[in-house]
């Protein structure tokens, strides 16, 4: 194997401090924020959790094709509107 050619002025590292000087290293990292494990560093995905009373339940519902087509034709958030109609029917029936 041949050695990688580099110019004489190329630094082996690009650090804002001298790694051989203990005081300089400690003063640089003094302001760093410590973490408490890998789980803390992972990105939090999805929406925030809701209270159990606010959560929705996923079900399989069989509807007529024309009813489903009509709701979908209303645009985005058609499922939310369908839920509101069902709630209104529930409240009117009581």
Layout of secondary structure:
Layout: H1 22-29, H2 38-41, H3 65-73, H4 78-93
Structure description:
The protein has 94 residues and is an all-alpha fold. The protein has a domain at 61-94. It has four helices and no strands. It has helices spanning 22-29, 38-41, 65-73, 78-93. The longest helix is centred in the last third of the chain and has 16 residues, at 78-93. The radius of gyration is 30 Å and the shape is elongated. The model has no long low-confidence stretch (mean pLDDT 85).
Largest sheet: none
Structural class: mainly alpha
Secondary-structure element sequence? HHHH
In terms of DSSP E residues, the strand content is under 5%
SS element count, helices: 4
Rg of Cα set: 30 Å
- Provide mean pLDDT, rounded: 85
Helix content, binned percent: 25-40%
- The count of β-strands is 0
Low-confidence segments, ≥5 residues, pLDDT <50?
A: none
Considering the chains and any ligands shown, give keywords for the structure.
94 residues, mainly alpha, elongated
In short:
The protein has 94 residues and is mostly helical. The chain has helices at 22-29, 38-41, 65-73, 78-93.
């Amino acid at each position: 194997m041949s050695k990688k050619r580099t110019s004489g002025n190329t630094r082996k590292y690009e650090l804002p401090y001298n790694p051989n000087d203990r005081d300089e290293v400690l003063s640089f990292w003094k302001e760093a924020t410590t973490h408490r494990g890998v789980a803390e560093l992972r990105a939090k995905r999805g929406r925030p959790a809701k209270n159990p009373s606010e959560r929705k339940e996923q079900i399989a519902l069989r509807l007529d094709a024309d009813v489903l087509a009509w709701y979908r034709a209303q645009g985005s958030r058609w499922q939310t509107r369908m839920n509101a109609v069902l709630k209104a029917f529930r409240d009117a029936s009581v």
